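Title: Prediction job returns without error message
Component: structure pipeline
Severity: low
Priority: P3
Assignee: unassigned

Description:
Job completed but the reporter wants confirmation the result is attached to the right record. Sequence as submitted:
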Amino acid sequence: MTAAAVSEPVDGTGTPSARSPFPILQPHTGPIPGDHYLPATPATVLWGRLPCASDAAVLEIASGESVTFDTVSHEGVLDDQGKDPRAFFGAHGVPVDEVLDDAVEIAASVSRDPFADGPHVVVGPVRVAGARPGDLLKITVDTLVPRVPYGVISNRHGKGALPGELPRTEHNVSVFASVEERAGALFGTLPVVEGGAPVVAFPLAPFLGTMGVAVAADERPHSVPPGTHGGNIDINLLVEGTTLFLPVQVEGAMAYVGDPHFAQGDGEVALTALEASLRATLRFEVIPADAARAAFGDVTGPLVRTPEFLVPTGMDPDLDAAMRACVRAALTLMNGRWGMDEHLAYAYLSAATDFDISQVVDIVSGVHARIREADFAAVPAVEPAPRDSDGGAA
């Protein structure tokens, strides 16, 4: 992945400050390219839980329309960080006017049980007209724009890939990382030693860790473990220009987003990635059940598509079981899309496909496979046609 490009200032949005390479995107300011705008407010977010069948939509859209979401990172607003973003980020030298107003409002007024709920601030749900159980919801990532020039990487609560070993002390560790512009691209920075100069630089590749649909139940799921509904899948391939397909579980799909990242390595071993707020513009389309089956076979969990790869997923609390689930999902996809015999598909996966660990820190571990579509250019395949406004396939 290449480093994120620096956003150009737009008339009326202000100019970068001395420490910021781009304008701060406070609510209702700056470019809002979607057909609809959904800011993060106490009325439009859930904190630590995901929408379920009994939740009311905060926005309704037609299939094919786009929504610009202001997403808010949970880092800097959590109880163990003081639940005061201005104080937390101010301690790292961030001016008050570069702390997001919506983060401050959410920390002060949205209810969350730190012992029972997850950490994530989730925006939605959005009802997509015409979506029915059995359909696929196609979510295309149009743009992902950093709202602030900083983020946080945390290792807390004895979690991460080395629980009980790191962090070394009883206290949680939250590492502040500033964003710098270098040669027209954006990089996260870290020091080599605590208190040192930020001489380590890594490219930004923004994505949303959480994109999902409501579950067909009357109890809101915890925001941490991913599942067939999507949720906190933490697949870092979901950058601008990619697509996520999710099996619809309730009428209207009731989609939501959150957990914005500036960068994440596969595995996300410390517990979090570089967590930071994004303005995300996503397009939502309904793929009817029969069109979905014709294109991909039976899709029972999140399916990612990049310009190069089809990416089936596998999830389970046990990483080995998640790997096996991903292999089965890949075999099902290859048979459904290209009619490939199981033993031949198995051989292809072994010879030509990388299986990556999405993350190992979210209660349910994730594995995703990268199947190169160019390898099947000579095999006929059907593209997933969205439902038109009359209720049929477009």
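Comment from assignee: result matches the submitted record. Confidence is low (pLDDT under 50) at residues 7-17.
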